[in-house]
Model the fold of this input.
Amino acid sequence: MRVKEIMDQKHPSIYDDDLATKARAVIRDFDLRILPVTDTDKKLLGKISRRDVMTISSSVSPIKVKGIMTPAKHIATMDDETIATFKAMLKVDVWFAPVIASAEDKTYKGVIGLDSFISELIKTSPERFVKDVSEIMTEKVVTCSPDDEVDDIWRLMTETRYAGLPVLAKNGKLVGIVTMKDLLESGATLPTFEAKKGRFRDSPKISSVMKTNVVSVQPFTKVIRVAKVMVSKDVGRVPVTDKAGKLLGIVDREDVARLVC
Done:
């Protein structure tokens, strides 16, 4: 199977001379995890992530996309073989990668994601997902509490490179989950090279931005069920709890994809 067979050819992109505030709006409105950056000839230059646009703290910022874009850790071509592509993506710890026409032609063509790979395998090779969740979950989970401040958790996400954290009550029970998407939609920002105005306002609590209708599973749940939830609900991670609701671990798309790659 080739990348061009399962990639998203309609994935938006943005020009390097566009304003960074436009990139933030596109990522928020289209619910994107990455936004490829091109020149006016549609040649790929880099990408912007949710993490990158969180540094834009003003709705009238003059900063351009080129000022916050970063290089793509992996770039696929349309004729690349999918298994090799996803192995390369996992090696550099990315879930999404921009796609160009060929090694010689850098024209942007779309984006390939682990979700596309998982979705295809659910249909063609469901037997690859027969393990219990307990066999692939991460047990040492970075968490937060409803009373934590958004600014602190944003910094924690930045330092740990996690895009989502389970929210636990004092008794260890799962009460929610908070993701970079939630922080972006809340209007939260992290003052960096901008934001002389507003940087000293009180930070809201995680309880005000977290999602409480969390999809969770128990350790004996089959991975195929988790994979289907990830694809159908577009979630990147699923907490694993015991019958009492206490957190035992977490499974993300990378854990599922590694079963095959």
Notes: Residues 3-124 form a domain with the CBS-domain fold (CATH 3.10.580.10). Confidence is low (pLDDT under 50) at residues 191-200. The two ends are 14 Å apart (CA to CA).
